Amino acid sequence: MEGIFSRCAGYVFQRVGKIAATAIGGGFLLLQIANHSGYVQVDWKKVEKDVNKAKKHLKKKANKAAPEINTFIEEATDFIKRNIVLSSGFVGGFFLGLAS
Predict the structure, then answer these.
(1) Residue 96 near residue 2, CB atoms below 8 Å
(2) How far apart are alpha carbons 34 and 28 in whole angstroms?
(3) How many Å apart are CA 21 and CA 24, to the nearest integer?
């Protein structure tokens, strides 16, 4: 039962990942074509300013969240160590789902 669930999870992640990558890449490509053709003008200085502002904000949030993430990672590692058979079965099925 676990193998079926993990394989399905891997398959879903593969499909969702491909769809998301296609949508993001296609949107970026269309934006670049529209920009090059003159339909859209992008203020790249403003984009750079906004990206830098977002990076600073994310860095500040990441520093606050770091202890919570470390705790989660430690708990997950302990769970995996205690349930190695269950974990390895899930990982194997997950990778089979990604490959199919």
Answers:
(1) no
(2) 10
(3) 5
Query: For 1-100, where are the alpha helices, taking DSSP H only?
Result: 2-37, 44-82, 84-99
Predicted local distance difference test score (pLDDT) of residue 100: 66
* Two tokens, residue 91: 């990982």
Q: Above 70 in pLDDT, residue 80?
A: yes
Q: Tell me: the pLDDT tens digits for 56-67? A: 888 877 767 667
Q: Which residues contact 84 (CB under 8 A, 6 or more apart)?
A: none
Q: For the whole prediction, is pTM greater than 0.70?
A: no
70-97 core/surface letters (b: 16 or more CB in 10 A; e: else): eeeeeeeeeeeeeeeeeeebbeebbeeb
Residue found under tokens 């949030």: 61
Query: To the nearest 10°, the Cα dihedral for 75, 77, 81, 83?
Result: 60
DSSP class of residue 43? Answer: -
